[in-house]
Request: fold
Amino acid sequence: MSYFSQVILATLILASSLTGCLNNAQDDSIEVSDSCSVGENFTSLESRVSEHTLVQEIDGEQVIRRYLIQAPTIIESSKCYPLIFALHGNGGQPDHFVGQFRDMIDDGEFIGIYPEGIERSWNLGKEASTANDTRFIENIADSLQSFSNIDHGRRYVIGFSNGAGMAHTLGVESNYFSAFVAVVTSLTTENIPSQNSGNPSVMQILGADDESVPYDGGEGVMGHVFLSGDESARVWAEHNNCNLTAENSTLMDGSIRTIYSDCMNGGEVINYKVENAGHSIDQNFEGGLNSLMWNFLSIH
Reply:
């Protein structure tokens, strides 16, 4: 082989080697989709439960606010996990969700995000908190953009009682979430979707005998005036341009399920009127409350 042939061959080998190095460097931060990225350029999720804080201005003061992230014990490096924001009721704490969703999270179904309300409440207009809680929860979602293995296109909300009212509020005020479940709280007369609201899929699970949030509507807890469960579901169905001919079913325990389908973006609105239930829903309802909620959220 001539001297010039040797030089050309060496040049080609070097170029090939450099190309391989560049490709390997790119592989360290692989963009899986527009809504999920993995790689060393992103913050790694901590396994199990980690505590985090954000600073929010409330009434002119800088307030440190707390939230928890619960990830699987073993995080699959190539997997993108959906997010569930779980919102406690008035007087509740985010920590109790850790046990409630542990098995599903360790099975790799989703990542749990558990914010804490000011004075253990969410600001729906009459509570102790005066915070802009929609902005707080959106700020949490924004802060998670730096984390690897999170699917930001699949963000959901589950709320209980006062937290369910906040879930409705997020549906009205935010476009960050594609679906939510509101447990034992319907819309109020002061919290109605408008033309500026998004079009989330909605599931309501309400007690037929609830005295705090009357199923038939009217004044309830904290002086809020609630829509009836039926009206609340229909308002969301009308807003989401669903087929307003609902499918009604009576379950084995006497509960009534109402489904509005053919909504915008393939969505749906589902309402459960749970027989013999007050301001709480049995964890075994419909074969398991957690599974019922996740099965709904996961398809939207």
